[in-house]
Design goal:
With 167 residues, this protein is α/β, with parallel strands linked by helices. It has five helices and seven strands; from the N terminus they run αβββββαβαααβ. Helix 3 runs antiparallel to helix 4 and helix 3 packs parallel to helix 5.
Length: 167
């Protein structure tokens, strides 16, 4: 959980546990991702070697620009992330329950498909394709909808176009 996402704990866990999939949801920049209290837990200059041989999904703004390639250079099995900010609408009444937020949920579900696919044993390429398929399905649903929620379409299209895959 977020309360454990310090650099020391994160990197210690990675070095000791026989895991093959790493999913990070945090705030980021082109060359880093942050955990608890915006502490950098992984960057292009610190920790990439710990993800050697692993499938990595990082949902953090811009982390696909420099961090993704650095992880691949360090030997990650594959990487999915975002080349631009990851954005979504939010209902102020649902700030602490994003998956029940009717504005945020459709966007998060499309992105979450990456992690779901990886956990189900898919490779990085398959996880990317399944997520993009979920985006297309959701975009079609909102495009053909008579609801007032069509304002979600730009968020879906943006994140879909910014989700990048290295494998």
């Amino acid at each position: 959980g977020g309360h454990k996402a310090s650099e020391v704990k994160f990197q210690s866990y990675l070095s000791k546990q026989p895991i093959s999939i790493v999913i990070i949801n945090g705030h980021g920049g082109p060359s880093e991702v942050a955990g608890k209290n915006n502490e950098i837990i992984l960057s292009t200059t610190n920790g990439c070697d710990l993800l050697k041989g692993k499938k990595v999904f990082i949902r953090a703004c811009d982390a696909g620009t420099a961090l993704g390639p650095a992880l691949m250079k360090a030997g990650a099995q594959g990487f999915i992330g975002y080349s631009q900010p990851f954005i979504f609408a939010r209902d102020p009444d649902s700030l602490h329950t994003p998956l029940t937020d009717e504005y945020a949920a459709p966007v998060l579900e499309c992105s979450n498909q990456v992690g779901i696919s990886l956990i189900k044993g898919k490779n990085i390429y398959e996880a990317q394709q399944e997520s993009l398929s979920k985006y297309r399905e959701t975009i079609d649903k909102f495009s053909n909808s008579k609801t007032a929620h069509t304002f979600i379409l730009p968020f879906l299209l943006w994140n879909m176009s910014c989700q990048i895959c290295y494998c």
